[in-house]
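Workshop exercise sheet. Pairs work together: one partner reads the sequence aloud, the other fills in the structure field after running the prediction. Swap roles for the next sheet.
Pair: D.N. / O.F.
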Amino acid sequence: MNTTQITIRLTPCAKQNAILGWEEDLFGERTLKVHVTVAPEKGKANKALIALLSKAWHIPKSAITIKYGGKSRTKILEIEGLDPQFLH
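Structure field:
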């Protein structure tokens, strides 16, 4: 099964859960901006992020792993079996 790594910029305590879209920096690195309504305490924001992406991308929660940035707003996720259409 294919594995994809993506960079996420997570904003907790937002008004609504939302995947806002891709943003590109000066070096061409792409980051997916995501908002969740929960506070970043005891891993709740990370769990909400995984649940939101799992539902939106129709993949199991277990297919999404936070590789880096568990306590940071910028995270690198490793995702198993993601359809490439979600990366555009």
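Discussion prompt: The chain has one domain: 7-82. What would you look at next?
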